[in-house]
Design goal:
The chain contains nine helices and seven strands; from the N terminus they run H-E-H-E-H-E-E-H-E-H-E-H-H-H-E-H. A five-stranded parallel β-sheet has the order 2-5-1-6-7, sandwiched between helices. Strands 3-4 form a two-stranded antiparallel ribbon. A hairpin with a 3-residue loop joins strand 3 and strand 4. Helix 4 runs parallel beside helix 5.
């Protein structure tokens, strides 16, 4: 698939969509992808990390998170929402017109997490709350590597059993970069 074909394929799935979810493992590129798609196709962009995390990596309660996400999902504006947050996924699926599932190899995700740590060593990522300094720990890398056994498996089941609309899978880093 060349870049032109990739562009056409992605554009075709985005036609008439108002609520698009971008899900996948940590470090897959969900936030970057969502920001670029939002800019290109006129979606408001909602980074779930920006809602969930407060300064110094303190998080809000699940109830407050759900309330804020419901406001976004029930809005009349077209949104592209990135983030995994499995505990809230079934609720988001009720509103979603399209799910884009980035399923790139987990070792690539870990490499991206390490690169991201150095890229944002002296600044805050644009998809996270100010005051959440980029950190890197061995336990987080292991957590990222266990995505398929953790929420990846549950996500696959949830999409197969509950979600009746379109799922667009990006299964390689090469494809992700083309889109």
């Amino acid at each position: 698939m060349n870049n032109y074909e990739a562009y056409n394929q992605l554009e075709a799935v985005l036609v008439n969509k108002n609520k698009v979810l971008v899900i996948g493992p940590n470090g897959a590129g969900k936030s970057t992808f969502a920001a670029k798609i939002g800019e290109k196709y006129g979606f408001e962009v909602c980074h779930l990390d920006k809602i969930f995390w407060q300064e110094n990596w303190n998080h809000i309660t699940e109830a407050v998170f759900e309330k804020k996400v419901n406001e976004v999902m029930s809005s009349n504006k077209p949104y592209i929402i990135d983030g995994d947050y499995f505990f809230n996924l079934s609720k988001r699926l009720e509103y979603a017109d399209l799910v884009i599932w980035i399923k790139i190899p987990l070792l690539v995700c870990v490499a991206n997490i390490i690169k991201r740590r150095f890229k944002y060593m002296f600044s805050t990522r644009p998809d996270i709350t100010a005051g959440c300094d980029e950190k890197l720990s061995f336990s987080f890398l292991i957590y990222a590597l266990k995505y398929n056994k953790r929420s990846g498996k549950q996500t696959k089941e949830l999409l197969a059993e509950v979600y009746q609309k379109e799922v667009f899978v990006i299964d390689s880093y090469h494809k992700l970069r083309k889109y």
